Amino acid sequence: MKSLAIGMGTYNALIWRTLIAVIFAVILMTFKPFKWPNKEALRVHIIRGSVTSVMAFTFFWGLARTPIAEAIAISFIAPLIALYLSAILLGETIERKAIFASILGLGGVGIIIAAKIQGEFSNDAGWGIAAILFSATLYAWNLVLQRQQALVANPIEIATFQNSIVSMILLLFAPWFLEVPDTKFAPELIGAAFCGVISSMFISWGYARAQAQALVPLEYSIFIWACLFGWIYFNESVTITTLLGTLLIVSGCLIATWQRKPPQEPPKEPHHPIPNID
To answer: Cβ distance 197 to 166 under 8 Å?
Structure first.
């Protein structure tokens, strides 16, 4: 998506990827009987689709102007906000280890950002960072919404409605911004759409089976992949401070997801009835 946003503009990269994703999702729906969602599920679909459309556009617009690892690092403010939103909106109890894990992860992000801001930023990069920060705030809400959505709909339905609603919202701006893409972008658009649908389904499946506070810290692991792909595809270097920050982030993930085994009850003594000797 970073490559597409640079090559064809953020709006066109996002709208064409989303339209292709709708086709993928509809094909998947043919393998399962479709039932129109109830009023509550449809309401959550519309809210999350609306939030996602703005969140995705601002993130990819910023991503085109900043290194991938840096963009992901800045966006890590979202999981911490989401932990507390999950308590407010979902009524979940925030455990101490989840709070500690998030703070530890954000500490790693802080180290990375502190090293970055010592350098000079261009105006374009500065606006990119601002866009990612705004996107991260919406992403915190999105993390809670996807938990609510996963409880009322199946993964294929979620992928279909989310991409459809985002497409409809983006198409409102088509008269001013839509352009037919060059065929050279087709492989990347199809790949981005496929990854978007599949990842959305996996995330929905996971959020239907665990509380948001347990899954949100796993968002920190994205940074590892951001470093790897930024280096491979865009020759973005990974510094010592980046590695140190990543270590703290991964530590936070491990702490947050560590599950203690419930204590086992001691085996009961076999009960032998007293024989009747009469």
So the answer is: no
Contact 63, 226 (CB under 8 A): no
**Tokens read off for 104:** 């530890």
Structure tokens at 89: 């909106």
Residue 76, both tokens: 């890590």
What is the full per-residue pLDDT of the chain (278 aa) written as tens digits? 999 999 999 999 999 999 999 999 889 888 877 788 888 889 999 999 999 999 999 999 999 988 898 888 878 777 667 777 777 776 777 777 777 877 887 788 778 777 766 665 567 777 888 899 899 889 888 877 877 888 888 888 888 999 999 999 999 999 999 999 999 999 999 999 999 889 888 887 887 787 766 776 677 778 788 888 998 999 988 778 878 887 887 787 677 666 554 444 454 444 444 445 44
Q: Compute the distance between CA of residue 146 and CA of residue 162 in angstroms, rounded to an integer.
A: 10
Environment class of residue 238 by beta-carbon count within 10 Å: exposed (0-12), middle (13-18) or buried (19+)? middle
Coil, strand, or helix at residue 82? helix
Asked if 39 contacts 99 with a C-beta cutoff of 8 angstroms, the reply is no
Stated pTM of the model? 0.79
Specify the amino acid at residue 207. Y
Distance between CA atoms of 97 and 102, rounded to whole angstroms? 8
What's phi and psi for 239, nearest 5 deg? Answer: -90, 175
Q: Are residues 107 and 247 in contact, defined by beta-carbon separation less than 8 angstroms?
A: no
